[in-house]
Specification:
Largest sheet of chain A: 6 strands, mixed
Distance between the termini of chain A: 27 Å
Radius of gyration of chain A: 17 Å
Helix content of chain A: 25-40%
Largest sheet of chain B: 4 strands, antiparallel
Shape of chain B: elongated
Number of domains of chain A: 1
CATH class of chain A: Alpha Beta
CATH architecture of chain A: 3-Layer(aba) Sandwich
Oligomer: heterodimer
Order of helices and strands of chain B: HHEHEHHEHEHHHHH
Helix content of chain B: over 70%
Number of helices of chain B: 11
Order of helices and strands of chain A: EEEHEEHEHHHEHEHEE
Shape of chain A: globular
Chain lengths: 226, 303
């Protein structure tokens, strides 16, 4: 599904963030990307949804290189992915419902569909009772669940989670990870970049370890070992 | 789907406009300033022109003939003058007509009446009232007449209205128009730049939103549209306020221009062309808003 072939990424001509990465990620996998800050986790993820382009090599999604996607079609390409971040990236002046509905609005879905789909996904993340509140009225864990709902609403093929639990307390972290596993169980490929050793070890899924831009370990039922 | 997206981006723009109330107010006010400066410059120019043209229409030259000049000769001169390029109209005023006019205009003045009775006969000469096509041609006409074969029958040539005053006023208007236009242009430029910068700052507050929109797969156009609509709203509000401001300032300033008989010109120009003025302002305001938004958003949009 996702394939990295000898990918390197160099920023502003000198500093290589990723060096000669080759990877294959299959459909329905749950992959944890671990490594110290600056190891290149985020860049690797950004290459997948074409926020960055590789300096060398190719990143392919369903056998199609990201560099082959026309500029104009990039927004449509990105709709294959849902993403969550450490800082949630919610719109502060929209309610929970509106934040989640926004993805569908952008996609041009009808109002009826939006009214039908949004409550469903909010039910999945257990926020059905808080859909009229604003992000500022929610806890960190709740906000991350809103952002998860937003990432899922349009049925993406891949869910990209870049340090989603970085700002959360242990209970919320567990909750989010359980949700990610649940989403993965429903067939969505999940890519998780994280620092959270305990939870990576707990879930016993594929772990790719990065160190200074290189893959140093790739285990099917891996542990966080750095 | 396109109409749905258009509708959504329209309301998105409207929501942004309302939600950022103060920022929208500030941006619109800056735009009011620039539109106001532009319209004052333009209106002053146009009304000034109307005034000068009206003034020019009232200027004429009067050629008085010696007493007892046969009217055939005067008619001959008249028809020759009418053929000349630089002349707009020629009117013949006979001795009797001149007397009638005098009696009419001085009917309340017993001295004139008595002195005319004392003279017994009509002392007034016949004349031709000539209007040139342009104010600058009078001098030439005067010289040509006094050098022509008709010079013998002409007693004197006179400007009916105070030519010197009109000429001076004309120069004043032209000079102020030039200065006004120069200042106006500078102000306009400043105003447009300030508007652009204000819109850019406003957009800065949306920066995160753009990022999130891109994240959920919004196309660049979908991100741009609300901003452009917001620009339209700035323009609409700014033009409405500018028209109100213009109306108030014309009400206030028109009486001051009374000395130059411009009061009526100003008010009638404003009311007569109200819709055109409003539409031009609306259009310029919207263009300014949309263009500023268009240029400014480029900074925050990358694919």
């Amino acid at each position: 599904m996702i394939q990295f072939e000898n990918v390197s990424k160099v920023f502003s001509g000198q500093y290589a963030v990723l060096k000669n990465i080759s990877l294959i990620i299959g459909q329905g996998e749950f992959v944890s990307l671990v490594g110290a800050s600056g190891a290149g986790k985020s860049t690797l993820l950004r290459l997948i949804y074409a926020e960055e382009m590789p300096t060398e090599g190719e990143v392919r999604f369903y056998n199609r290189a990201t560099t082959a996607v026309k500029q104009k079609l990039l927004p449509y390409y990105r709709r294959n992915f849902g993403s969550v971040f450490q800082d949630f990236k919610l719109l502060p002046n929209k309610t929970v419902f509106e934040n989640v509905a926004f993805t569908l609005e952008v996609d041009g879905r009808s109002n009826e569909e939006i009214m039908k789909e949004v409550p469903k996904v909010l039910l999945l993340v257990h926020l059905e009772e808080k859909m009229d509140l604003y992000p500022s009225q929610l806890s960190g864990g709740e906000n991350q669940r809103v952002s998860l709902a937003r990432a899922l609403i349009h049925g993406p093929k891949v869910l990209i989670a870049d340090e989603p639990t970085g700002n959360l307390d242990p209970a919320s972290t567990e909750e989010i990870l359980d949700l990610l596993l649940q989403i993965n169980a429903l067939g969505t490929t999940v890519l998780l970049a994280t620092h959270d050793k305990d939870n990576v070890n707990r879930i016993r899924r594929r772990v790719i370890s990065l160190d200074r831009g290189r893959v140093i370990r790739d285990e099917v039922k891996g542990k966080y070992v750095i | 789907m396109k109409i749905l997206k258009l509708k959504r981006t329209f309301f998105e723009g409207w929501k942004n406009f309302v939600r950022n109330g103060w920022l929208s107010f500030a941006t619109s006010s800056i735009m009011v300033l620039s539109l106001y400066v532009m319209s004052v410059t333009v209106i002053f120019g146009i009304v000034g022109n109307i005034f000068v043209r009206n003034g020019e229409k009232n200027i004429s030259i009067s050629v008085y003939f010696n007493p007892k000049t046969p009217s055939e000769q005067i008619q001959e001169l008249k028809s020759q003058l009418e053929k000349a390029d630089e002349i707009f109209s020629v009117r013949y005023v006979s001795e009797n007509e001149a007397l009638d006019q005098l009696m009419q205009s001085e009917k309340d003045n017993p001295i004139i009446k008595r002195s005319l009775e004392a003279v017994g006969s009509n002392p007034l000469p016949a004349s031709l009232i000539i209007r040139a096509k342009d104010i600058s041609l009078y001098e030439k006409i005067e010289v040509q007449l006094s050098q022509s074969k008709y010079a013998d029958i002409i007693s004197h040539i006179n400007y009916k209205k105070n030519r010197e005053m009109i000429e001076q006023f004309r120069r004043f208007i032209v000079a102020t128009q030039k200065i006004g236009l120069a200042i106006g242009l500078v102000f306009m430029l400043i105003a447009v730049l300030v508007t652009y910068n204000t819109v850019r700052l406003t957009l800065y507050s949306h920066k995160q939103e753009f990022e999130i929109m891109r994240l959920v797969g919004a196309s660049n156009l979908y991100i741009k549209m609300p901003v452009l609509f917001e620009g339209v709203f700035y323009g609409v509000f700014a033009s409405v306020f500018t028209v109100i401001l213009l109306f108030l300032s014309i009400q206030f300033f028109a009486p001051i221009t009374r000395f130059a008989a411009m009061e009526e010109n100003l008010v009638s120009f404003f009311t007569g062309y109200f819709w055109i003025i409003f539409l031009v302002l609306l259009f310029s305001g919207m263009c300014m808003g949309v263009l500023s938004g268009w240029i400014a958003i480029k900074r925050y949009l990358k694919v």
